Amino acid sequence: MMYTKKYVVITGASSGIGYATAKAFAKRGKNLILVARREEKLKELEQQIKSIDSTLEVVIKVVDLSVEKNTYQLFEQLEKYEIETWINNAGFGYYSMLADQNFAKTISMIRLNIEALTILSMLYVKKYQDVEGSQLINISSAGGYTIVPTAITYCGTKFYVSSFTEGLDHELKDSGARLKAKVLAPAATQTEFGKVANNVERYDYDKAFGTYHTSDQMANFLLELYDSDKTVGYVSREKFSFELTGGRFDYSGNSSNNQKS
Ligand SMILES: NC(=O)c1ccc[n+]([C@@H]2O[C@H](COP(=O)([O-])OP(=O)(O)OC[C@H]3O[C@@H](n4cnc5c(N)ncnc54)[C@H](OP(=O)(O)O)[C@@H]3O)[C@@H](O)[C@H]2O)c1
């Protein structure tokens, strides 16, 4: 297929980090494909993008990614676009002791944070692994490297995102692929995350955390990661500093104890 334009896909673009990241890419002249469930928020974002640069193409996809078949359907509908960057950002948290957790919410979190992210990563890698300049950026969390009290299931999903994406980056490098896989690991960021994770209508980040980043700051960190040749963009939960590093997990790439091929 002959493509004429390139696009950046952002899942979870209707608020928070995804919303700010879409505007940051628009300022760099990137065409955007915006994915989330709330159409009116995506339309509002489209207007903002057009006011940044009226020549940009914006595609809106209203989809619930916690339903498995929707993830395949979304990718199929995007076959006609050349996607230079895919950002799996849609996700949510859940602050609650395990014994108090609601099954439906926990399973839906696992479906979105793990299942949808894995399927969309697989589809993107299968199609774009040999395309120079392509990037897959998965949004994990500082809680994807450190276990946070009362958020253990959420942290479990994010440990998955971190280790899966770091592992994928090793695999792509080891096999000489062109595609880069990267992890962004934010600490507290002022978004709708706090409301969703605590099942509340209002959430005060000043009271709850005191120290946090804004979603615009996080979008700039994401761009730093995008521009770098490092694998992980990590925000320290203690110092709130941002650092770009290679993988943070051990990798048994050269071990003689690996399965012999
Ligand atoms: N904020 C933080 O402190 C923090 C810290 C570490 C990591 N993170 C991670 O950063 C990412 C972005 O979160 P955020 O902080 O920006 O929170 P947010 O403001 O709540 O944004 C979450 C986005 O995900 C979308 N989403 C939720 N459920 C969805 C579904 N079933 N299908 C499709 N889209 C869905 C939401 O859109 P709709 O509701 O319109 O579908 C929204 O656009 C998440 O992966 C989160 O885990 C956040």
Q: Which CATH first-tier class would you pick?
A: Alpha Beta
Domain module tally: 1
Which cofactor or ligand species appear? NADP nicotinamide-adenine-dinucleotide phosphate
At the fourth level of CATH, the homologous superfamily is: NAD(P)-binding Rossmann-like Domain
Biggest pleated-sheet summary? 8 strands, mixed
- N-to-C terminal Cα separation, in Å? 35 Å
Topology-level CATH name? Rossmann fold
- Poorly predicted runs are none
Query: Would you tell me the overall average pLDDT?
Result: 97
The largest beta-sheet arranges its strands as 3-2-1-4-5-6-9-10
Helix count, DSSP H or I runs of 4 or more residues: 8
Quick one: how many beta strands?
10
* Percent of residues in beta strands: 15-25%
Cα shape:
globular
Roughly how many Å is the radius of gyration? 18 Å
Write the CATH architecture name: 3-Layer(aba) Sandwich
- How does the helix and strand content classify structurally? alpha/beta
Instruction: Tell me roughly what share of residues is in helical segments.
Output: 40-55%
What is the H/E string?
EHEHEHEHEHEEHHEHEE
Characterization of this structure:
With 261 residues, the protein is α/β, with parallel strands linked by helices. It has one domain (6-245): Rossmann fold (3-Layer(aba) Sandwich). The longest helix has 26 residues, at 103-128. It is globular. Helix content is 41%, strand content 18%. The protein is built from 8 helices and 10 strands. The relative contact order is 0.13. The strands form 2 sheets. An 8-stranded mixed β-sheet has the order 3-2-1-4-5-6-9-10, with helices on both faces. α1 crosses α8 (215-227) and α4 (103-128) runs parallel beside α5 (152-174). It starts with 5 loop residues before the first strand and ends in a 16-residue tail after the last strand. The structure holds NADP nicotinamide-adenine-dinucleotide phosphate. Residues 12-18, 36-38, 41, 64-66, 89-93, 112, 139, 141, 186, 188-189, 191-193, 196 line the site of NADP nicotinamide-adenine-dinucleotide phosphate.
